[in-house]
Amino acid sequence: MTEAGRFASLTPVLAPRSVAILGASSDPTRIGGRPLAYMKARGFAGRIMPVNPNRPEVQGYQAFASLSELPEVPDVAIVAVAGDRAVEAVEQMAAMGVKGAIVFTAGFAEVDASGTGPETATQNRMVAAARASGMRLLGPNCLGLFNDSIGFYPIFSSSFEQGWPARRLGSGGVGIASQSGAFGTHLYSVMRNRRIPTPICVTTGNEADITIGDVIGWLVEDPNTDVIAAYAEGIHESASLLAALAAANAARKPVVMMKVGSSLLGQVAAQSHTASIAGDDAVTAAVLAEYGVVRARSTEELVDIAYAATKRIYPARNTLGMITLSGGAGVLVSDACEQIGLPMPEMPVMAQDALRALVPFSAPRNPVDCTAQVFNDTALIGHFAGSMVEDGGYTSVLGFFTQAGGAASLFPKIRAEMAAVAERHPDRLYVMSVIASPEINAAYEDSGFLVFEDPTRAVIALKAMGDFGDAFAAPSPSQPPEVPEVALPATTPNEAEAKRLLAEAGIGIVPERACAVVEQAVAAATAFGFPVVMKILSPDILHKSEIGGVLVGVDSIKAVRDGFATLLSRAPAGARVDGVLVARQIRGVECIMGIHRDPVFGPIAMFGLGGVFVEILKDVVFRRCPFGVAEAETMIRSIKGAPLLFGARGRPVVDIAALSTMLARLSVFAAQSGDTLSSIDLNPVFATPDGAYAADAVLEIGASDHGH
Q1: Helices (H), 403-531
Q2: Backbone φ, ψ for residue 688 (5° rounding)
Q3: Orientation of helix 118-133 relative to helix 83-96, angle to 10°
Q4: CA dist 260 → 150, 211, 598 (Å)
Q5: How far apart are the first and last CA of the chain?
Q6: What does the pLDDT look like over 326-347, one tens digit per residue?
Q7: How confident is the model at residue 262 (pLDDT cuts 50, 70, 90)?
Q8: Does the pLDDT value for residue 546 go beyond 90?
């Protein structure tokens, strides 16, 4: 099945024409009763068939004693019965040709820490039955979902007792995809209370079949969803997620995700909660960034970003202009923008002069402080804000009007002035930072404005809109370089052999020779010219510096002879020793390149500067393999220490093209090597004005012990 077909196969589960409810209850507050009560209240137009052997009718609907007595095969069935009965029901549904199952029942893989117990085996049996018939299964251990656009509510959350999803004409809807049922409906409730439309929310539970990636993929095609808000505790299936994120990016449909489980305690909690493995957080962050997903750090951020995205305006190369009544608020916002990288360019000088002519004591640089003079003449707001858009060219405008924006005497005039600017330039984002009643806030929103009390929260949301815009406008990735396929050995090679394999792939290596006897070492050193580097050569000693297995600055024949003997004497007992590696000693900026095989996303490339930058500052960047030279250069330029490669502190500028090509070729080598390759560590790589050369290489074969 193609990924597009896989996503489409969710339609009978998320937007069915008929539904059966196994374990249907006449009590609308019970797990088996709430879905029926909710669908009745929201007017689900499809056929509803409660299954209950003890009652002829349930909540006014004709009930049926068993699945076999249903008058038709439903598109989907809700399973709200216990344990073994749930598995048997799924097997019977599959045999009947039901297209989807929503399994509330818990007690499966989520309570089996080992993954090999009877609970997981029972879950696997359920999934096998579903897959054999092509039936899609949501759950088990699943709170359910709601699709308010059709009144479909196969969910037992109590959150609807406080209100139904918000609906607002002319505003896009937020589709929620969550691995956690309780947190998914928590997000829904917070959004409802902020009047943010949420037409659909899907929670995936154990993800025995349908994953969060599947749900995101379906939401990309859903016409009622303009923004996707996702909550993930662990990603354990990458193909559907990557396909979904690529589809979202191509459709210009923004995805904001809260990915938790970055701490050790969080990873343990995520595994016990969703029966998934929380992958390495830095790797996940790199993959999300690759597809333009904006990652939220908190519920507040996720909701703020989703709220702003409902405007469906995503300015590439975003800039912020701020009109304010307060110089202090301007400083606050300027600091916040600098911290997160949202540009606030100054107004053009001529525009500043024109605004000073209107209010001589104003400060119109940006932030544009029009002062309290607007209390006497609110038309000044229109002049100042209009100039910011027309002369300053800002793609996002933040109006800080605090209590004045909520005052009955000023609110209508302020709204009218700002609305006139927005009507002339509807392609910009406009935020009103005001303290006002819910009714006045709603009036601003109905006029097309975003409303935030806290201007720094607005800044974070506006920065995210620009990030979406940049991702949507980004060119297609460059093609990875062509690299000859290299046959890997069955076991981990020694350093010389590892470098030979890498050299076959076109990766630059410091000139060196493997020397089995001392005379070969002397000849090699003499040929390279002193000084040289000498290293013990053994497939069993991967981290040579830890045993004193590396000698630098070896500057004479005598030193070579002495060094050869010293290195052999330092080999641990039982280690296989193939001799000594003699290499030309070169100078350059020390870098590190590596490959780590992530259990979810496959080979991941890493780049950073060597020494303290990687060991102490963790100044490294990751990207999923393979990738092209342009992406490699972007990685290199993104690290904080990058100026050292471009001539900082009087250093020579290194050959960035060679360094980028080396990193890209390494990514292709890793991708072509498949599961045989566990990891690669090139440390150091010397970046010089004349090229890039790996001075040390570790290439590990076999199952990785770095899994998460």
Answers
A1: 411-424, 438-446, 455-473, 495-504, 518-528
A2: -125, 170
A3: 10
A4: 31, 16, 18
A5: 29
A6: 889 999 999 999 999 999 999 9
A7: low
A8: no
